[in-house]
Design brief:
2 copies of one chain form a homodimer. By secondary structure, chain A is mainly alpha-helical. Chain A has one domain (6-133): Winged helix-like DNA-binding domain superfamily/Winged helix DNA-binding domain (Arc Repressor Mutant, subunit A). Chain A contains 6 helices and 2 strands, in the order αααββααα. Chain A has a two-stranded antiparallel sheet. In chain A, β1 and β2 form a beta hairpin. In chain A, α1 (6-20) crosses α4 and α2 crosses α3 (39-51). The longest helix of chain A is centred in the last third of the chain and has 16 residues, at 110-125. Chain A is elongated. At the A-B interface, α1, α4, α5 and α6 of A face α1, α4, α5 and α6 of B. The first copy, chain A, binds a DNA duplex through residues 5-7, 27-29, 38, 40-41, 43-44, 46-47, 50-51, 57-65.
Chain lengths: 153, 153
DNA sequence: ACAAAATAGTACTATAATAGTCCACTTTAA
DNA sequence: TTAAAGTGGACTATTATAGTACTATTTTGT
């Protein structure tokens, strides 16, 4: 199974929770309780989301967190990217991002992996946080990634 | 980064290697050397691929492995599925497969995760091993997964 | 000013998943 | 019947992840 870490799972739950009242500040305690995890773990995730610019934080005694953008303007690619780093199935990178595979030159399948990663990326980018908040959301429309030449096999 | 294990990476390289001469038997040693890993690790992966029905094995002194189907009839979803188990970003499962999340009932985003996983699945199933063997392969056409109701947000 | 309550940063520890290795067994061709 | 190949399963080492703790900083209210 290609899977995400637990923290990403928590993060998604947090983001959908915050999306329900996008204007109100929620404390880490609040959020931790809402999704049923311990406060230290919750704060860890919240810090990551904040540093990535998906959340705004306010310090001080009445502080807390809220979405930095509207739920429509935040995608699953944003959230996963914030918590797991660049999205890619391999270390091949994507056409845009470099990648750090030492096999590099000799690798015959790199270009194809990059295309696959890009496709997954596009899929995740096509799902907004707003969609995640509704019980049954919109169909996921995945574009075939980038201009890859058609090849007859 | 959502990433696959190294073994899956090896597996893909092995499969593309075997796809170049689909009729010839290749020994584990052969294959290990071709992709540049140690024999014990290679055999581990080969065993997994064989048990999943993607490879045929022949024992005995002139034994070895070959593809069980044509490169056109093997997809990346097959290979990844064989080496990583069912494809899914979370433990939510897919509309078809059950999933084993204890949050289950209360989870507000499960259905959406299932759709996303299904989309990734479809993407991987749309790429054949044959395509992986050409330097720059066909565009990946991802269907929007399954009949998810359109919702106005 | 000061105390209380909240986030920020960072480092550490524990746990779990993965990768890699090894060995005894089975099969087959010469 | 022996050598070379795959099979199955268990074991070990390594690495990645999750979880925790501690100190510093910010803000509000009195």
């Amino acid at each position: 199974m290609i899977k995400m870490g637990k923290l990403t799972d928590y993060g998604t739950l947090m983001m959908t929770y915050l999306a329900r009242e996008p204007k109100r500040l929620h404390s880490a305690q609040d959020i931790a309780q809402a999704i049923g995890i311990n406060v230290p773990t919750a704060t860890k995730v919240l810090k990551m989301l904040t540093r990535s610019g998906l959340l705004e934080s306010h310090r001080g005694i009445k502080g807390g967190y809220l979405l930095a953008r509207t739920p429509q303007d935040i995608t699953m690619a944003d959230i996963i990217g914030a918590l797991e780093g660049p999205i890619g199935l391999t270390d091949c990178g994507t056409p845009s991002q470099p990648g750090n595979c030492h096999r590099e030159r000799s690798c015959s399948v790199k270009a194809n992996w990059q295309r696959i990663s890009q496709a997954v990326n596009d899929a995740l980018a096509s799902v907004s946080l707003a969609e995640m908040t509704v019980p049954v959301a919109q169909p996921i429309v995945m574009q075939r990634p980038t201009h890859i030449e058609q090849v007859r096999l």
